[in-house]
Amino acid sequence: MKKLIIIEDDTDTREMAVFTFENNGYEVIQSAKEIPVREIIDLKPHIVVIGYQVNGTPGNELCLKLKANEHTMHIPIILYSANLDIDTISKNKCADGFIAKPYELEDFVYLVHRIALS
Residue 74 and residue 41: Cα distance in Å, rounded? Predict the structure, then answer.
C-alpha cells in the first residue's frame, strides 16, 4: 500500500482528500501544520501533498526543505492551491506536480497516482 502525507490546514479540504485517497488504496497520514523533515524521513511516504498556504506559511517552503535533504529529495511532492501562479510556483520550488483549485477529485487522484507510481 502506498503511503501519502497530506498537509492542509483547511479541515474540510483535508478530510475530503483523506477520504478520497483512503478509498483509492492509499495509507494517508494527515496534518493541519507543517511536519518536520525528520518526521517525514521516519514516516517514509511514497508521496507528499502540500497545500500552498498552511497556517500562513507557504507550503513551498517545506517543498524546498524536502528537496534539499538527501533522505527526502526522492519523494515526489505535489503542491495545490487556488493561487493562479501555482504552476510557476511548483516548478520554482522543485515540486513534481501541482493541481490548481478548484479541481475535480478524479484529476487529483489521477495526478497523485501517476506521480506516486512512476
Answer: 11
Domain ranges of the chain: 2-116
End-to-end CA distance of the chain: 15
pLDDT confidence bin for 46, thresholds 50/70/90: very high
Which one-letter amino acid corresponds to residue 105? L
Are 103 and 80 in contact by the 8 Å Cβ rule? The answer is yes
Nearest to 49 by CA among 3, 12, 84, 87: 3
Query: pLDDT tens across 7-22, in order?
Result: 999 899 899 999 999 9
Helix 105-116 × helix 11-22 angle, to 10° = 60
Phi, psi of 48, deg, nearest 5: -125, 130
Q: Which three cell numbers stand for residue 39?
A: 518526521
Mean pLDDT score, 78-100: 70
Structural fold of domain 2-116: Rossmann fold (3.40.50)
